[in-house]
Amino acid sequence: MTRCAGIVGVGAYLPEKVLNNLDLEKIVDTSDEWIRTRTGMWERHVIADDQAASDLAYNASKPALEMAGLDTLDLDAIIVATVTSDYLFPATACLLQDRLGAKNAGGFDLSAGCAGFASALSVADAYIRSGMMENLLVLGVDVLTRITDWTDRDCVLFGDGAGAVVLTPVPEGEGILASFLKVDGGGGVHLIQPGGGSRHPASHETVEKRMHYIHMSGQDVFKGAVRGMVEAALAVLEKAGYTPDDVNLLVPHQANIRIIEAVRKRLKIPPERAFVNIERQANTSAATIPVGFEEAHRTGRLKKGDLVCTTAFGAGFAWAANLLRWCI
Ligand code: ACO
Q1: Best residue among 114, 144, 222 to mutate for probing ligand 1, ranked by most atoms within 8 Å of CB
Q2: Which residues have C-beta within 8 Å of that of residue 140, sequence separation ≥ 6?
Q3: d(CA 169, CA 199)
Q4: Is 24 left (phi over 0), alpha (psi -120 to 50) or beta?
Q5: DSSP state of 69
Q6: What is the per-residue pLDDT for 1?
Q7: 253 catalytic per annotation
Q8: Distance, CA 77 to ligand 1 centroid (Å)?
Q9: Do 320 and 181 contact (CB within 8 A), yes or no?
Q10: Cβ-count burial 108-138 (b if 16+ within 10 Å, e if not)
Q11: How far is CA 13 from the centre of its chain?
Q12: How far is the centre of ligand 1, averaged over its atoms, from the C-alpha of 83 (Å)?
């Protein structure tokens, strides 16, 4: 049997605390009206003081594993897409493996910014197609509010969350049909956390210069995102022999409602076939797509056999997409 990876379990976790636009008006020079009209966001979830990425990941993993009916001992690998791991090392995948008691699993974190989850799905699909692995847990987890400069007006864009999927082999054509990845490191400077790595290790100076926060050129990211997300979606559709007309649900990365709308219109996909939850969750980076999967599945917007197209763009620049049949 030729096989591919199919999603057989999905879970999500959003921290309890919610910050709405009116709360942000009290922190920075912004307004509810500006945030709603320029970004589509109303509120975002913010991690508790005693939580970190692996806690969100754990809470998203449990329901995904339960839905899949899989014991953690059956997991061959855990891949966590994140740019906000608990520590620079060890990997969040290792912390999660320990907490889940997934004693037979390998694992690693994958860094591709907001394109991390779509990139990680392509890795899981390749492992399963090759016959190297059977059961994988793949997450998109980010805690952007921990690297957000709350004196910068761009702080309105970010929220925290985690989404998890369990993948197992399914017959070719019934799971992930195609994936696409691309990077352009020339765009790296437009979306970067400059401090804390080996280029500028943490020091009094990096902290004073606020280098451990997100530094972003919003308009460059915006333009790249529209171009990259359209390119990636069209590439996976072409690879698998489909057109945008065939897509039952587009699940795009949620960075700005104007980016989503521009992508949707260029793909000629009507609004009812594009998933949007940005108003309630803002940009949770690698988590937006798996969190979207969970909500779309729970609310009946995703049904078994549906053709689903993901597309995402983020730090790197990195952009990626997947085309898959929903199989739960
Ligand atoms: N609140 C109120 N006013 C604001 C804010 C704000 N938060 N930000 C900018 N403005 C004002 C500006 O001062 C400017 O005012 P002016 O016209 O009086 O000069 C006006 O709004 C327009 O400013 P622009 O920068 O042109 O605003 P734009 O429409 O480009 O929106 C935004 C800015 C929201 C950042 C947009 O460019 C965007 O969404 N970019 C993509 C960002 C993104 O997706 N980042 C992903 C990072 S996450 C990751 O990958 C890890």
Answers
A1: 222
A2: 81, 82, 116, 117, 120, 162, 163, 285, 286, 287, 288, 289, 290, 291
A3: 41
A4: alpha
A5: T
A6: 62
A7: yes
A8: 38
A9: yes
A10: ebbbbbbbbbbbbbbbbbebbbeeebbbbbb
A11: 13
A12: 22
Residue type, 6: G
Mean pLDDT by 10 residues, the chain (328 residues): 94 98 98 98 98 98 98 98 98 98 98 98 98 98 98 97 98 98 98 98 98 97 98 98 98 98 98 98 98 98 98 98 98
Cβ atoms 325, 305 nearer than 8 A: yes
Domains of the chain: 3-174 (3.40.47.10), 177-325 (3.40.47.10)
What is the distance of C-alpha 150 from the center of its chain? 22
Question: Rounded to two decimals, what is the model's pTM?
Answer: 0.97
> What gap in Å lies between CA 264 and CA 238, rounded to an integer?
17
175/110 Cα distance (integer angstroms): 22
**Nearest of 30, 280, 228 to residue 119 by alpha carbon:** 228
* Ligand 1 center–CA 154 separation, angstroms: 7
Q: Is 162 helix (H, G, I), strand (E, B) or coil?
A: strand
| Cα atoms found within 13 Å of the Cα of residue 203, Cβ hemisphere only | 7
